[in-house]
Design goal:
- The chain is α/β, with parallel strands linked by helices.
- The protein is 39% helix and 18% strand.
- The protein has an 8-stranded parallel beta barrel with strand order 1-4-5-8-9-10-11-12, surrounded by 8 helices.
């Protein structure tokens, strides 16, 4: 039997050979760890639908950030779950509010940590929507002013990156202008540029207590069937002054990650969301898959698709394996 001269298996024979020719290399520097912050001191609350994940008070969030730094994870993304919620999300833009408290505590505990903050109204409103509501409609332009107030409060507390996740039109440009007017021109914006109306957000909504009280978010989050729209959204955010673009979710949208990567030179983040995380855990708990192998494979896939930054709840677990 005649064989071709080229035999790809030659370079797969040993772990060292495979590592030598590996095209995509995952490192701890790729990760951003999302953290949920709650009021109080000494508070650590397990999240039932997200095995291994917790909500932390600002003081314990700071301790966790120090541990993350020691693992090689150098960025966190903060979400706040306040005690008080109202129709306008006022807890979200108080200068001494929950996220500013956490930002200051983390900056003290881990001075070199990159601190990113989610900018949205959904966690802070009693109706759970990402914008102001009038007669059942989500208002775009009036919401921008409140988002900018939230971004300014976070930046003044010391956040390095603000990350608007609301999907209101024009919010990146509006926030950029307001930050600059406040002398906060060095604060970066990571835009949730391509955020789909996804079924994979379920566990997050439990963790952040942010499920809509009525309706859904399809009038502002993107239709999962659309790809060209994703490119338009990404380009709009780039033109409005975003420093980093994002695709969310990651796993079911790797084609979108690749398409956006090819359309822009800006750094690109992809968010491996709560449902992706919990599904892998659930399958592993039933013995259907190997947790660590599936976790690493999913993360490598996100980077291979073109993401420079991976936001994932798996970050600490993966970092321990990669160190």
């Amino acid at each position: 039997m005649s064989f071709p001269a080229s035999r790809p298996r030659r370079l797969r024979r040993t772990p060292a050979l495979r590592a030598l020719v590996r095209e995509t290399v995952l490192t701890t520097k790729d990760f951003v760890f999302p953290m949920f912050v709650v009021p109080g001191r000494g508070v650590s609350q397990p999240i039932g639908s997200m095995p291994g994940q917790k909500r932390f008070s600002p003081d314990l969030a700071a301790e966790e950030a120090r541990r993350l730094w020691d693992l090689g994870i150098h960025a966190v993304l903060l979400f706040g779950i306040p005690e008080h919620k109202d129709a306008v999300g006022s807890s979200g833009y108080q200068k001494d509010g929950l996220i500013p408290q956490a930002v200051r505590a983390i900056a003290k505990a881990a001075p070199q940590m990159v601190i990113m903050t989610d900018v949205c109204l959904c966690e802070y409103t009693d109706h759970g929507h990402c914008g102001l509501v009038e007669k059942g409609e989500i208002l775009n332009d009036p919401t921008l002013e409140l988002l900018a107030k939230q971004a300014i409060a976070h930046a003044q507390a010391g956040a390095h990156v603000v990350a608007p996740s609301d999907m209101m039109d024009g919010r990146v440009g509006f926030i950029r202008e307001e930050l600059d007017d406040e002398g906060l021109e060095n604060t970066s914006i990571m835009a949730y540029s391509v955020k789909y109306a996804s079924a994979f957000y379920g566990p997050f909504r439990e963790a952040a207590e942010s499920a809509p009280a009525f309706g859904d978010r399809q009038s502002y989050q993107m239709d999962p069937a659309n790809q060209s729209e994703a490119i338009r959204e990404a380009r709009m955010d780039e033109e409005e002054g975003a420093d980093i673009l994002m695709v969310k979710p990651a796993g079911p949208y790797l084609d979108i990650v690749r398409a956006v990567r090819e359309a822009t030179d800006l750094p690109l983040a992809a968010y491996q969301v709560s449902g992706e995380y919990s599904m892998i855990h659930a399958a592993a708990e039933r013995g259907w898959i190997d947790l660590e192998k599936a976790m690493l494979e999913s993360l490598v896939g996100i980077k291979r698709a073109g993401a420079d930054i991976i936001i994932s709840y798996f970050a600490p677990h993966a970092a321990r394996l990669l160190k």
